[in-house]
Specification:
Elements (H helix, E strand, L loop, with lengths): L1 H30 L1 H7 L4 E2 H8 L3 H13 L3 E6 L2 E6 L1 H6 L9 H15 L2 H5 L1 H24 L9 E5 L5 H9 L4 E6 L1 H10 L8 E5 L12 E5 L7 H14 L5 E6 L10 H13 L7 H8 L5 E6 L6 E6 L1
Parallel strand pairs: 4-5, 4-7, 5-6, 7-8
Antiparallel strand pairs: 1-3, 2-3, 8-10, 9-10
Helix pairs in contact: 1-6, 3-4, 8-9, 8-10
The structure holds S-adenosylmethionine.
Pathway: Aromatic compound metabolism; melatonin biosynthesis; melatonin from serotonin: step 1/2
Pfam families: Dimerisation, Methyltransf_2
Protein name: Acetylserotonin O-methyltransferase
């Protein structure tokens, strides 16, 4: 029956089994098969490989034979037993220390990228997921937005730009609390489009939306830039780069308001902030920071008069001036 199915069916099976081929490659790299065979003085049989690697005899033999079939290993028979050695492909690309080694890339692909690809369908369906994330973020500002925005008097700043402002929920809380002010919400195009379709901030005439990449594109000129739950997504180096860009765009006499959950000075509390920091570790390249760590980012970017205020709520405020 298979033979009647023709080329289409063969192609389909090849695609469907592609992940198994990748996993054989990743597993052999992870276990150190290619290193072991590179360092051995002669080809090794599967019992020797499994004993060196501490792996199961049966699983190891199967893996080695599959690697032979994939041309990653070659097998010869000596004394009635199969012995294995690296092929040229493996010696060139899979062994640590080879000048053309791709081993680290394969380990990354196997450990990290492969796990993310498990969620490809959800990612493609992501408008729903993004919308849900934005709704989740908005929920907090409905309850805590006014408190955090009242930590400092923002009335001297008539034009506010909320960078990475998402749905516009915080901008909306801002124009309600400070009736004299207008706000620009700056975010990536996909987020701005969802905000315009689904969130009420876009109907408020005091709020406008601006699409862009805050690491690359020109930032709108404003008196005050808000960065709420943005810096915690990024490494110190990327935060510094962003803060320098904000400093350059900011009007003289203007300021920056960083809204984040502040860690205690010794970095050992509050528990909620520590948990958020672990959440950042799992999901992003960032972390939560202490007041001193925010000062150390803001000062070198050019900002002065850095003041930190704990609100008693989930999020705190750091205001600095240009
Ligand atoms: C954790 S969310 C915080 C959203 C909002 N400030 C809040 O507190 O609810 C981070 C925001 O930064 C935006 N963002 C990430 N990278 C960006 C970039 N390169 N340029 C502009 N916005 C970006 C995301 O789209 C997202 O809306």
């Amino acid at each position: 029956m298979c033979s009647q199915e023709g080329e289409g069916y063969s192609l389909l099976k090849e695609y469907a089994n592609g992940f198994m081929v990748s996993q054989v490659l990743f597993a052999a790299c992870e276990l150190g098969v290619f290193e072991l065979l590179a360092e051995a003085l002669e080809p090794l049989d599967s019992a020797a490989v499994s004993s060196h690697l501490g792996s199961s005899p049966q699983g190891t033999e199967l893996l080695l034979n599959t690697c032979v079939s994939l041309k990653l290993l070659q097998a010869d028979v000596r004394g009635g037993k199969a012995v294995y050695a690296n092929t040229e492909l493996a010696s060139t690309y899979l062994v640590r220390g080879s000048p053309r080694s791709q081993r680290d890339m394969l380990l990354y692909a196997g450990r990290t990228a492969y796990v993310c690809w498990r969620h490809l369908a959800e990612a493609v369906r992501s408008e729903d997921e993004r919308l849900q994330f934005m709704q989740g973020l908005q929920d907090v500002w409905r309850l805590e937005g006014a408190t955090v925005l009242a930590a400092f008097d923002l009335s001297p700043f008539p034009l506010i730009c909320d960078l990475g402002g998402g749905s516009g929920a915080l901008a909306k809380a801002c124009v309600s609390l400070y009736p004299g002010c207008r706000a620009i919400v700056f975010d990536i195009p996909g987020v701005v489009q969802i905000a315009k379709r689904h969130f009420s901030a876009s109907e408020d005439e005091r709020i406008s939306f601006h699409e862009g990449d805050f690491f690359k594109d020109a930032l709108p000129e404003a008196d005050l830039y808000i960065l709420a739950r943005v810096l915690h997504d990024w490494t110190d180096a990327k935060c510094s780069h962003l803060l320098q860009r904000v400093y350059r765009a900011c009007r003289t006499g203007g300021g920056i308001l960083v809204i984040e959950s502040l860690l205690d000075t010794d970095g050992r509390g509050p528990l909620t902030t520590l948990l958020y920091s672990l959440n950042m570790l799992v999901q992003t390249e960032g972390r939560e920071r202490t007041p001193a760590e925010y000062r150390a980012l803001l000062g070198p970017a050019g900002f002065r008069d850095v003041r930190c205020r704990r609100t008693g709520g989930t999020y705190d405020a750091v205001l600095a001036r240009k």
